[in-house]
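Could you please consider the sequence and fold appended to this message?
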Amino acid sequence: MVSQEFTVDLNKPLVFQVGHLGEAYQEWVHQPIVSKEGPRFFANDFLEFLTQTVWWAVPTIWLPVVCWCLSMSIQRGNTLPRLALMAAAGIFLWTLIEYTLHRFLFHIKTKSYWGNTAHYLLHGCHHKHPMDGLRLVFPPAAAAILCIPFWNLVKLIATPSAAPALFGGGLLGYVIYDCTHYYLHHGQPSKEPAKNLKRFHLNHHFRIQNKGFGITSSLWDIVFGTLPPSKSSSQST
């Protein structure tokens, strides 16, 4: 793991090392190490604990919140058909948010010390160690913080009765996304569409990392022209 000016020691905590790679960080972080044992991030045990999340924490924590949001919408006068429609719209909107965040934030190009450090914590670590099972889903504390601006945005664009259903649907979309993401890395699907989703996502990790940003669906990759070419077409060109 050598750059022109700095060598990353994989046996030491990584977070405060990667910033020193400078422009070489982008190449380094996109050379995956396939191991189910993740690296050490911080020397401090408490900070290290905050970076690790078991996959089942996501549905355990957030599904009750989804149910609370949907029940609040009913209490505010929403009918069941309208509730289902708004929740479905929230799930659909999440797929666009998922694509947008992955493409434009998670894959932002960095070269400064703090830029590289922040990117590694946000998403770079997942590309460097894609099979690290404790750093695949989003930490609940960070997700809770991000919920605040999203909830305020939903309140601006929806009526008081529709806002909880729309937000709850979006939150349900997030839970589906994180659980799907974990399964695509650690599950062994034998049937479609899960088998194709796994192939599509691993292609993003190990073949063409600047294409294929959708996790739960390739819809927005098709819409915005970031669908990766098939192996046969890429080999023939």
About this structure: The radius of gyration is 19 Å. Residues 211 and 226 are 5 Å apart (CA to CA). The chain has a mean pLDDT of 92.
